[in-house]
Write a sequence for this structure.
């Protein structure tokens, strides 16, 4: 048996179980071994029958004297009754609704039973105990019993049996990947102890080993990547203080300290002769655009081109207008390229917009005449060629695939610097691990004078009251966003969806019934881009008071006069996304409000919404999200494919630092891991499943 063999090589695993395991992400024997229990049931307290106490978990060992099924006709349940005897005495055992037990357990069988004794109708009996026939290594009773995350049709009982047979089959065949001097539990022992621990202490030691191992692998991957990058060549862009000062002094506001700090970090990176790979993390409204623009200006003034990519057309247009405004007096050409349309603008910024054809724009880009090209995914088409691209800026980097990023960065002669930006904060520890402290810039300060957005969870019966409040805001001249989870109502409206608001219907209701005296607009992904653009423009120019939309307003849209964000069916959105919606308001001196509406009665979704109400910054919210959703489900991590155990250890800063240091030392001695072939193989395998920036 080979560690990396597909799972169907294990006897007892056919196509049915194979596909069930696949749902858990288990495809190889190795994956299976690394599918760890999330807790243990303590059935280790083996006692003689005379010592059984009421209502206390215990395990007894004995012989079955009798076993029978009894039907109770009134309640229509089958009761299995048995008598278990050991040297000290005998006890009655009762199972409910498991008639098949009599096929597995026969008179005279020697078994372990784990469960609680109860007293009812004048007799004491063991109620629904877990059973297991006696064998040298027990799996389900008489020990710390592993309990695995449940998936339909894959019981912990089944997993235990399979895992044991795999572990036995791989005896002495699991190579150690970590250097021995790390002084951790050896791999094979650790695998046994994490699945079938002799004691909680050993289980803990095993867990420590694997936490260490996984963080260590991440660190190796990150450090190797970083070292490789520093060996690549990019261009050094001198810091152009004259122009930067001119840009900064032209702003109608003062930069925050965080903006200054981050801009400086970026400019220092750009000076280096190897490619920057930096993430600028900043809450919505923290002012990332100006920071990016400072970097762009410095790059352009050094004679190079900049590509600025946004995930949606609306955002690309907005960036274009913003950057255009900021760079107005610097005599530059800024172009915009998006997917669907065939009109493109470029501008000698002193004059008005000049419309040019796409063909012309591409030609100018290739000649190097366009200084900054802003756009959507359209920027990564093969036909878009730059002359001297030295800086790539990605807004909302998580929206882009790794491959897309790589493509844009692969230019014929220069490897451009990469500045990624995100308003979806990931917990600090996770960021530190994945990006390392060197490559992370945090905009952890909002511009002064921003008022806290008042967030309220609105119950269905408070809807009227909320509309009345919104009407007052509208009368004051403010504008309103209403976000719905869906575009249209489902045709066969089953009860699940009936409470889910849909944009089209909501548009009807709001415009005709609730706010007939105001102008209501609607926007969603199915509209033509021209139409979307027109509507957004109308909203920005206050020709529309209320805009009903799907999640298209999620990122970046800037309409400072809007003071209310109303989110329907809020339980259908992730916390990070809700925070993004909320960030659409509170962009001016007006007090802003975020109303979250939910039809869900689950405590979990209520807790999440409460976290949104309480957390003011995305960073706090991200930590909370991690806590509430549990490591496995944390929004950012699917993307990275990070195992649960690692997620848990990401709160352990000391371990993160230790693994980083050890990884650094190892790579210093053996960058190519020639002396660590198993570690090398494991790292390769690990990197295929995990995606680091
Ligand atoms: P985000 O980080 O969400 O992309 P933006 O760059 O869109 O934020 O900035 C949000 C708004 O804040 C813009 O209207 C911008 O002009 C303004 N802004 C940026 N920096 C400052 C600052 N230091 N002081 C005041 N307003 C600022
Ligand atoms: Mg932005």
């Amino acid at each position: 048996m080979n560690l990396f063999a597909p799972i169907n090589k294990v006897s007892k695993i056919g196509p049915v179980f194979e596909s069930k395991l696949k749902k858990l992400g288990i495809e190889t024997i190795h994956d299976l071994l690394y599918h760890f229990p999330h807790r243990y049931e303590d059935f280790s307290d083996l006692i003689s029958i005379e010592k059984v106490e009421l209502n206390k978990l215990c395990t007894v060992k004995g012989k079955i004297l009798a076993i029978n099924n009894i039907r109770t006709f009134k309640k229509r349940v089958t009761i299995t009754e048995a008598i278990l005897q050991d040297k000290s005495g005998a006890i009655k055992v009762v199972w409910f609704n498991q008639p098949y037990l009599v096929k597995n357990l026969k008179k005279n069988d020697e078994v372990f039973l784990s469960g609680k004794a109860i007293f009812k109708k004048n007799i004491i009996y063991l109620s629904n105990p877990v059973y297991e026939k006696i064998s040298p290594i027990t799996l389900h009773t008489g020990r710390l019993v592993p309990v695995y995350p449940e998936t339909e049709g894959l019981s912990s009982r089944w997993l235990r049996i399979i895992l044991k047979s795999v572990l036995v089959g791989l005896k002495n065949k699991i190579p150690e990947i970590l250097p021995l001097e790390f002084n951790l539990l050896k791999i094979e022992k650790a695998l046994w102890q994490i699945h079938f621990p002799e004691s909680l202490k050993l289980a803990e030691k095993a867990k420590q080993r694997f936490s260490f191992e996984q963080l260590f692998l991440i660190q190796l991957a990150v450090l190797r990547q970083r070292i490789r990058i520093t060996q690549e060549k990019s261009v050094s862009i001198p810091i152009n203080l004259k122009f930067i000062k001119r840009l900064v002094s032209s702003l109608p506001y003062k930069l925050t300290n965080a903006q200054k700090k981050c801009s400086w970090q970026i400019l220092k990176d750009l000076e280096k002769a190897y490619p920057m790979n930096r993430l600028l993390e900043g809450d919505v409204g923290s002012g990332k655009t100006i920071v990016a623009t400072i970097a762009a200006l410095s790059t352009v003034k050094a004679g190079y081109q900049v590509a600025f990519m946004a995930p949606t057309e609306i955002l690309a247009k907005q960036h274009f207008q913003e950057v255009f405004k900021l760079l107005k007096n610097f005599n530059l050409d800024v172009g915009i390229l998006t997917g669907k349309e065939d009109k493109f603008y470029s501008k000698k910024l002193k004059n008005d917009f000049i419309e040019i054809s796409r063909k012309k724009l591409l030609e100018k880009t290739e000649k190097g005449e366009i200084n900054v090209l802003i756009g959507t995914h359209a920027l990564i088409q093969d036909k878009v060629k730059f002359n001297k691209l030295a800086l790539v800026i990605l807004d909302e980097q998580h929206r882009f695939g790794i491959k897309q990023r790589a493509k844009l960065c692969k230019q014929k002669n220069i490897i451009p610097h990469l500045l990624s930006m995100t308003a979806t904060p990931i917990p600090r520890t996770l960021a530190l691990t994945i990006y390392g402290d060197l490559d992370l810039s945090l905009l952890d300060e909002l511009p002064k004078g921003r008022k806290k957005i008042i967030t309220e969870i609105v119950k269905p019966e408070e809807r009227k009251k909320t509309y009345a409040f919104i009407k007052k805001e509208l009368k004051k001249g403010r504008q309103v966003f209403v976000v719905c989870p869906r575009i249209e109502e489902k045709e066969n409206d089953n009860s699940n969806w009936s409470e889910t608001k849909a944009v089209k219907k909501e548009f009807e209701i709001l415009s005709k019934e609730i706010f007939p005296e105001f102008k209501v607009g609607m926007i969603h992904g199915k509209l033509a881009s021209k139409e979307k653009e027109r509507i957004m423009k109308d909203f920005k120019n206050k020709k529309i008071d209320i805009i009903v939309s799907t999640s298209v307003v999620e990122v970046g849209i800037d309409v400072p006069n809007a003071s209310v964000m109303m989110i329907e069916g809020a339980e259908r959105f992730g916390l990070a996304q809700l925070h993004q919606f909320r960030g659409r308001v509170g962009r001016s001196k007006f007090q802003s409000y975020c109303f979250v509406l939910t039809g869900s009665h689950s405590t979990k979704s209520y807790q999440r919404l409460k976290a949104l109400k309480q957390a003011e910054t995305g960073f706090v919210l991200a930590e909370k999200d991690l806590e509430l959703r549990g490591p496995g489900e944390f929004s950012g991590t699917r993307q990275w494919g990070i195992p649960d155990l690692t997620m848990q250890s990401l709160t352990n800063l000391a371990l993160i630092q230790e693994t980083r240091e050890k990884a650094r030392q190892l790579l210093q001695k053996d960058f190519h891991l020639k002396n660590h072939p198993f570690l090398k193989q494991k790292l390769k395998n690990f990197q295929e499943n995990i995606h680091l920036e």
Notes: Residues 493-498, 631-640 have pLDDT under 50 and may be disordered. The radius of gyration is 31 Å.
